[in-house]
Recover the amino acids of this structure.
């Protein structure tokens, strides 16, 4: 039996991802793979150390407000109900000397290793950033889809900086170098990776 809050979030996320990605696109295929796995099995609850917030999490409420009245309000509401139950952490490799990034970002795993639902076949999580922060360039073997809940821009080695808008989606092919950044307001986005 899946946690009802997690299930409500996953239902809203599947609908938003489906609405954002055209049939047969790489982003749509990522969504199909991720949600088929979630239908097939339910992972154990609470794989991590428990709920934890960082100061940058103070931006989440303002970020969620930007989704009010928009196409992802339902997703923002379902995610908002989980926020205080998540373990918000800095990127493992974050450098304390880089104050803007160290103080200005946090990630939380919802479904995946150490997430609210423990899984080893996918990662679903969230990133929040304060205004004016760029997430460090990174890469990983799994392909990845991002859905934004607040305005932001994404870059990858094959794509100039792009704002997908409130209805769009960002797709990163396996292993590609990529990054994201906030503008004048807070950044909040969800990521989906079949692993
Ligand atoms: Fe990534």
């Amino acid at each position: 039996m899946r946690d009802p809050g997690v299930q409500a979030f996953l239902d809203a996320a599947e609908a938003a991802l489906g609405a954002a990605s055209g049939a047969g696109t790489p982003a749509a295929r990522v969504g199909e793979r991720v949600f088929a796995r979630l239908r097939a099995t339910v992972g154990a609850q609470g794989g991590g150390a428990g709920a934890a917030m960082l100061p940058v999490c103070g931006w989440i409420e303002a970020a969620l407000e930007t989704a009010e009245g928009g196409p992802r309000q339902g997703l923002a509401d379902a995610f908002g109900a989980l926020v205080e139950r998540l373990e918000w952490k800095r990127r493992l490799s974050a450098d304390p000397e880089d104050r803007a990034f160290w103080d200005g970002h946090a990630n939380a795993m919802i479904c995946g290793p150490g997430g609210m639902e423990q899984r080893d076949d996918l990662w679903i999580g969230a990133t929040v950033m304060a205004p004016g922060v760029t997430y460090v360039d990174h890469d990983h073997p799994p392909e990845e889809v991002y859905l934004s809940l607040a305005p932001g821009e994404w870059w990858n080695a094959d794509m100039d900086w792009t704002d997908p808008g409130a209805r769009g989606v960002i797709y990163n092919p396996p292993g590609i170098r990529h990054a994201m950044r906030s503008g004048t307001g807070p950044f909040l986005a969800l990521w989906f990776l079949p692993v």
About this structure: Helices lie at 4-20, 26-40, 60-65, 73-80, 99-104.
